[in-house]
Design goal:
Layout lengths: L2 H48 L5 H22 L2 H25 L2
């Protein structure tokens, strides 16, 4: 093995290590964002419920987010459970948003 080959292998190894680090950081950021998003949704739902305002819009947004995540996972992982949960979350989101619209115009 000559010097150039050693340097090229080292460079490829460092690049792969950096990619893994970026993937790890992205995954952790995604998890933290989901936690904060969920906490904000729950806070808004309790606040609106306490004040007598319909919470269908808040839960509709939350279930739409969950549907999007499920369909994305199904697209790349091809597990039927993600397709089923995506469909159920989509139906739930549509019903909740419809309920919010109906309650708003009463």
């Amino acid at each position: 093995m000559d010097k150039k080959e050693i340097l090229s292998r080292n460079k490829r190894y460092n690049k792969n290590e950096e990619d893994e680090r970026e993937e790890y950081i992205s995954a952790k950021a995604g998890i933290n964002a989901k936690i904060v998003f969920s906490l904000v949704i729950v806070f808004l739902a309790f606040f609106k419920h306490y004040n007598g305002i319909s919470t269908g819009d808040v839960w509709g947004i939350f279930t739409a987010y969950a549907a999007t995540e499920s369909f994305y996972k199904y697209h790349y992982l091809n597990h039927t459970k993600f397709l089923i949960s995506g469909i159920l979350f989509s139906v739930s989101s549509a019903i909740l948003l419809l309920q919010f619209i109906i309650s708003t115009y009463r």
